[in-house]
Amino acid sequence: MTEDVIERAKRHFAQIVEEQLDRIRRLRETTGVWIDYPKQRPVVIGFVGGDGIGPYIIDATERVLKFLLADKLATGEIIFKKIEGLTLERRAKLMQSVPEDVLEAVKHCHVLLKGPTTTPREGDRYPNLESANVTLRRELDLFANVRPVKVPEKGIDWIFFRENTEGAYVLGSRGIHITDELAIDFSVTTSTGAERIIRMAFEYARQNGINRVTVVTKANIIKATDGKFLATAERVARDYPEVAWDHWFVDIFAAKLLDPKRRTDFRVVVLPNLYGDIITDEAAEIQGGVGTAGSANIGTRYAMFEPIHGSALRMVEEGRAIYANPTSAMRAAVMLLRHIGFSEEARRLDNALDITEKKVQITGRPDGATCSEFTDHVLATLSGAE
Ligand code: IPM
Ligand code: MG
Predict the structure, then answer these.
(1) Is the pLDDT of residue 277 over 60?
(2) Distance between CA atoms of residues 3 and 106, nearest Å
(3) Whose CA is nearest to atom 5 of ligand 1?
(4) N or C, which terminus of the chain has less Cβ within 10 Å?
(5) CB within 5 A of ion ligand 2: which residues?
(6) pLDDT tens for each residue of 93-108
């Protein structure tokens, strides 16, 4: 019996190792081969609603983009494509975390604006499928999750580069229950994977004249994978002698984000997947809540922009979906616009959001504005009526 168990675990592990070695081979082929988005025309923007409040906030953002990009839509420089079918019910029925037709449709776009998708958990009424987000990030190789957080009045101006396809996530759904007693998960770091995200952070610092990159790991404890991430940072940093860098362990870094005297020193932060997930929620909370932050998932061929919050199914169940806050989806659209080379439109939208957020209170409940009222204000601000 014990031998069977061990043999099964060994086979599972062998398969994982083979898959990862294969992945590295593919990675090496695509690393550094970028689509030049500002030159790519037409650009096809796909809209994916997702679950819960997702369709509400994505539709609202589509309305705003339609207004902002009206002339480019008319000339055909930009093409909008609505992608249906990434719903939880459908994923459960098909037993696919991203249904094949959706993946196919997504691959015909260049960039995506995507609403949150619900991630099933053990014991839910839905099958315990892999997160649609994680599947999309892996399938489209969206290796960089870029999350800016700004609180100007507190001197906070951070941008997080979260590794998005490796770490504890890449094999999160491939862990195994060896016996009833014993469960084992896996985490992965590759040199190529760590290098491309760390390089992106240093490039960003260099191009924006920022003299500080902070690397966050737990390399004192997670010695192999985090150790490799840190060692890669040491190596990459040598190519950027003009950019100072430092390294923090994730626990104390999480604490220092709350220290008003220290936190303003941080500017560009690069970190492995799971720490990036946790730290960026903390950072967004400091900015005013996870509803306020947008996030960019960038790869060499595709890019996907989304709010960092979840699908808030409960708001839909309680009939409050019309009060959903579209700010984070719209901030994600700002990043999308910048990515495809429309920085003037991006600036205008960002600005309109700053103004609207000050004027229109949105609480997620009937005492605040509805999603469409908020959107009306954004549109009015953009058209100069307010
Ligand atoms: C995020 C989310 C996702 C993640 C979930 C929805 C899979 O929390 O984008 O931060 O864990 O990465
Ligand atoms: Mg998260």
Answers:
(1) yes
(2) 44
(3) 133
(4) N
(5) 277
(6) 999 999 999 999 999 9
CA of residue 278 to ligand 2 center, whole Å: 6
Joined together, the tokens standing for residue 377 give: 């204000």
Q: Which of 71, 151, 65, 116 is nearest to 335 (CA)?
A: 65
DSSP letter at 188 equals B
Is ligand 1 within 6 A of the CB of residue 378? Answer: no
Residue 277 CA to ligand 2 center (angstroms) comes to 4
pLDDT digits (tens, 9 = 90+) for 54-65: 999 999 999 999
CA of 191 to the centre of ligand 1 (A): 23
**Beta carbons of 199 and 189 less than 8 angstroms apart:** no
Enumerate the β-bridge partners of residue 269.
160, 214
Ligand nearest to the CA of 132: 1
Give the other-Cβ count within 10 Å of 178's Cβ.
Answer: 14
Q: Where are the beta strands (DSSP E) in 93-220?
A: 111-114, 144-151, 156-163, 176-177, 183-184, 213-217
